[in-house]
């Protein structure tokens, strides 16, 4: 997920740039060809492009072939029938009918924002969904409407809490987005609850480098610096990494996200969460359908006037900026500004993946 | 705050045990003598004793002299007039009029639970408050009524995010409590957002031991193993500890708690949060009154029937327990069971502190 530490590092071996506009139109066309409606294709393309624009390359068009492979396997339904349950005024549950999480997330957050506009705060839980892209793009739907928004999701099990070698949790990201103050840029915390995301291990493996101690453990639960350890039965470690470093906190946060988005929504959870990759089969005896997400919103106007909020946030922001600290979300906004102007860099491999994907759908690459 | 790693370590040099019942009655008497009403004294004593019973000794009666010192300084108001503001149905803000946070937290959570019973979810933010004890004791008010509860608070600045030597955040704990399944014990995550709590440094200093790298930085922002570094202008580090370890995540979580409980409530925040100790003066130009807390609840019945929830949680619990993992909250419940039977252990110093406190209020020590 988006993190302050892996930003502003463009892909190595840049072969060229895509214009964001051209790329987004092409991605939308891909979603149309696999059966999405016009509005769903537009939503899904926008969520993927948001990641590419912000420099979260692992969650952008790089994931597109993966979504299409899951659709080919019949594990993503591009023509979902939303099934809503509402037992109380400010809480709703969405069974997403196997939809793209990219779309289900937007639809669910829209509902959370609408209920929060009426009651002040609201929550929407989603089951029977798939990978929802970057959490921030959903949480921000609230932030741009004067609300604090949150978004979290469980994910295929890759994390083994210290003391176990069994993968019990996903990287289970959580995101909170706050409406902007006078600089116009929302404060956005969007983090995996593991010490490092899978993508960082892939980068290290590609570069032939060891990973730091604290990111992963091997198949006996011992710490390792082997970047390919996930392919050898190992696992990621929760944030905190060691007993002394507070790994029980990272494990607790990952468990919280699993309980909230998976258990409470009626979705699958823990070790049974379906894998994102098409070559692994979902568990047959899982406790519920698909992935689960949790969304919510809290209206600033339920607390104070927006000008007072903005004034307070400006003061907060200034204190942290003056101490030389990076504010969460800001590197991504800066990257977005650059990439809107200069385009989205791609590698030869990245372009080839989209050429192959396009060919399989009778589509010219962007 | 409560953590899985510092439990089941009784105080060293145990001089004896207090019966929980006797101690609670005595603590209540102390609160009565400093001007609390009968009901406020009972609430405050119960919250403190909950910490002692669970083995979170840093947050129990050990804190009582500190509360009394702040009251003597006129910085805690034991006869508060609650000032509620409600702009929307499921959100309320409480100005606690300088109350004991122990009491304000209980009152605020009661309101959150009442609103969530009507709307499914609700939030209460509190400003103009003080240290609220263990977060879990507030969040659990929801969990025992079939709701997920959360509680967080900002706190006096002791944490310097990596890249700064300035203390900008408190240990800013967050807590989430889930209603119990069939074992009757709620799942409770209650964690400081720093790598280690202040109390762990004090224990190391008392034992003449170095602290691990990753817990604290010195007054130039460099990592240190000096357990007395806080007295020498140093600071605690956020969870994650290092750039590689994901310290931006711990910093982000601490900032989230500060924004949610301090900024959104109208309280003070960041470097201006008033100190818990009486010998440091609060900032004159703070952005709001006192500490801030954030509470909320989400009713399980808004999502599914309680039996279905319990069945799902039992399955989740079993998967983690079978992998040999400690479940959050369980060591504290076990400690509570033991201490209810055997009493709460105290050291000679601990007893002397209560003797002195009692003497200052014309009260025999317990």
Q: Approximately how much beta-strand content do the residues of chain A carry?
A: 15-25%
Q: Looking across the biggest beta sheet of chain A, what order are the strands in?
A: 2-3-4-11-5-6-7
Class of secondary structure makeup of chain A: alpha+beta
The figure for the number of domains of chain A is: 1
* Large-scale geometry of chain A: globular
Contiguous helical run count of chain A: 10
Query: What radius of gyration of chain A results from the CA coordinates?
Result: 20 Å
CATH superfamily of chain A: Malate/L-lactate/L-sulpholactate dehydrogenase, NADPH binding domain
Helix share bin of chain A: 25-40%
Explain the overall architecture.
- The structure is a homodimer.
- By secondary structure, the first copy, chain A, is an alpha+beta fold.
- The first copy, chain A, has a single domain (about 15-195, about 235-325, about 325-360), classed as Malate/L-lactate/L-sulpholactate dehydrogenase, NADPH binding domain (Ribosomal Protein S8, Chain: A, domain 1, 2-Layer Sandwich), CATH 3.30.1370.60.
- Helix content of chain A is about 35%, strand content about 15%.
- The first copy, chain A, has 10 helices and 12 strands.
- Chain A has helices at about 20-35, 40-55, 65-70, 100-120, 135-145, 200-205, 245-265, 305-320, 330-340, 350-360; strands spanning about 15-20, 85-90, 90-95, 120-130, 145-155, 175-180, 185-190, 215, 225, 235, 290-300, 345.
- In chain A, the strands form 3 sheets. In chain A, strands 2-3-4-11-5-6-7 form a 7-stranded mixed beta sheet, sandwiched between helices. Chain A has a 3-stranded antiparallel beta sheet with strand order 9-8-10, with no helix packed on it.
- In chain A, helix 1 (about 20-35) crosses helix 2, helix 2 packs across helix 9 (about 330-340) and helix 4 runs parallel beside helix 5.
- Chain A starts with 13 loop residues before the first strand and ends in a 6-residue tail after the last helix.
- Chains A and B meet through strand 4, strand 7, helix 7, strand 11 and helix 8 of A and strand 4, strand 7, helix 7, strand 11 and helix 8 of B.
